[in-house]
Amino acid sequence: MSATSVIEYRAGSGLPENPVARQVHDIVAVAWRELRVTLRDPFSQIFALGQPLVFLLLFAPLLSGAVGGAMAPAGAEAAGAESVIQWFLPGLLVMIALFGTGMTGSNLLFEMQMGSYERILASPLTRSSIIVGRSLKEFVPLVLQAILLTVVAIPFGFTLHIGGVLVGLLMLGIFGVGLGALSYALGLASKDREWLFWTVQQSVTFPLLLLAGMMLPLESGPQWMQVASRFNPITYLVNGERALFAGELNADVAWGFVAALATLVVGLWAGVSGIRRATR
């Protein structure tokens, strides 16, 4: 949907007089515009699962063979895992968010280069709704991809705890919205310096991934990595996802939601502040 159609959508619906209602109206308009673009090309979301599927089908089995048929005891017990896949899948879903949702700011960079972003700014939409709406849209494709991967994992040993999985998907979606907002904030700060966006994004993503124990249990790693992981908010998110996907409800879940909500608040604040500064 073009920027013009966003304006037409809003004008056709009527402008709410209440400021809160107007803000909600604008957020919905932007989120729907972004979501329609995604829904028009569902195969791109499916193809984006290529790399995660490789990790799930070819990397996860190596973990079992490397430790004599089971995940390292500390890692497995902490997650309540019944199999390597049970332990590995939740971390893989968080990795999808880091490498997928965390890159969405590049779409904003492309729009800025092509001029379509300026047309959106020229519309009557509030500035904050542009970022909030875009960020909320990230919830849907991230959760849909997570559902597909979860279904694929079932024949390979994943035990489905439906209640825990649903809550885990909610936690993942909240984190994805915040991460998407952070990515958009980085895109706004980078402006026409695309190299800056990718340098910062990659420099931050890989350390967060490795220090969260997504791919391998940190219990068998050096002491300094275990200490560093405690200062990594993604660690608490991964631990919370693993507990939920194992059907458990414990302190890890609470800390996981704290990490997800903190990412949401910080991300939306950074995104809204960024677009206001960029359009002064």
Helices and strands, in order, run as: HHHHHHHHHHHHHHH
Which word captures the global form?
globular
Mean pLDDT: 83
Number of helices: 15
Helix content: over 70%
Counting DSSP E segments of at least 2 residues, the number of strands comes to: 0
Largest sheet: none
Strand content: under 5%
N-end to C-end Cα span: 26 Å
**Rounded Rg:** 20 Å
- What structural class should be given to the helix and strand makeup? mainly alpha
What are the low-pLDDT stretches, counting only 5+ consecutive residues below 50?
Answer: 1-12, 66-81
Count of separate structural domains? 1
What would you say this structure looks like, in words?
77% of the residues lie in helices and 0% in strands. The chain has 280 residues and is an all-alpha fold. The chain has one domain (3-278). Helix 6 (84-99) crosses helix 14 and helix 11 runs antiparallel to helix 12 (194-211). The radius of gyration is 20 Å and the shape is globular.
